[in-house]
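Project standup — Tuesday

K.O.: blocked on the structure for the chain from last sprint. Re-posting the sequence here as requested.
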Amino acid sequence: MSVISSKDVNEIIRKTLGIINNKIMNHGEITGYILYKMMEYENTYTEQHYTEQELVDYTMLGILHDIGLYKEDNVKNVSDFETKNLWPHSIYGFLFLKYLSPVGDRAEVVLYHHLDYNRHNLIQSRYLHIIEMLSLADKMDTFLHLKDERLEPEYFAKYRDIKFSGAALDLFHKAEERYGITENLVNGKYREELDVLLAKRAFSEQYKRGFLEMLVYTIDFRSEHTVIHTLATVHFAEQLGRLARLSGKDLRDLHYGALLHDLGKIAIPLNILESTGRLNDEEMKIMKAHVRITEMILEGVVDDAVLQIAVRHHEKLDGTGYHKGLKAEDLTLAQQIIAVADILSALYGKRSYKDAFSKEKILEIMNGDADRGKINRNVVTSLERNYDKIIGEFEKEKENTIGLYLKIKEQYAIISERFKMFD
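H.V.: unblocked you, prediction finished:
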């Protein structure tokens, strides 16, 4: 059985990113839908044809075209970023999707979606046609849905073949006449159509895994420490699971449960997530809510075994954990392993409120918890015997992750400098 169905990929993206900013998510889905219907019209009535994979990839890029906006603080009006200060979120969104999503080879579409049509001669891209359609779809939602008063009523007549492609506008009108795009946007049927499109395509496990990993990386918009912690928890859980000789299915479930276990932190205020001091009782109550939020996101979307691993990582064998106060007899071995892996990751990692602990300190704390009956003694003993190997392999893996962040930052600076020519 698959961890997540193809049709639920967009649902988990919708639920997760909608928590950060529902306006950006709605704008993305509408833009992606408009782009999809324009491509569908071309597939049916013109000589331009897209494979099923291309339809899905470009639609997903349409949905995620403003993913760089999630990095911005206090985005109350999406149209502010659609009509001014265009390049930062376009560039960051491009780099994010290029390196951290399964549609990276086509992410260039996002980079240029705000470039005026009459400047397309200044760039070279194999995706110019899609860029023109995405740009038009983006402007169409800004005009129709976001109701930005700065767009003049005669905008589409005045700026034809200047700010957008006239051919793309003509294509939209044909698709609108054929499919009733605006009516579907009003009555909400566009979401059903998006779900049907994604359900038709049987995504590979690698493709689906790529989008789940992408969601974990979106937490980096708010806390790089949390992303590193998640990746460490995945690595430690897998190593401990192998040492415990879990079955192939249990190892798979453990991997995904660890990957998604802190997804709910996307809703925790940054001042709590990155607090440099001890949290007070009220702040700790808010922080603990991330488990329930994770459950709300994953419920009904991922396989139940994965869900239960993800949301039980703070449970203790003696019933003193949260969020349900379960005991040893209620917890599977995989669920007990992720609890150990999560603690190891928290102790080993450098966080906003502490430096990394030494090997001796980490093992002292974890053995103490095991002696008090809070975490699995056999798993801790296995960790102690294999500590250096487990940590050594994680350090190699972490270098790749940090290298990726550095590459994104470096390329962001380079592209930003180059894009000054478009100001």
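K.O.: great, moving the ticket to review. The mean pLDDT is 90. Residues 318 and 373 are 6 Å apart (CA to CA).
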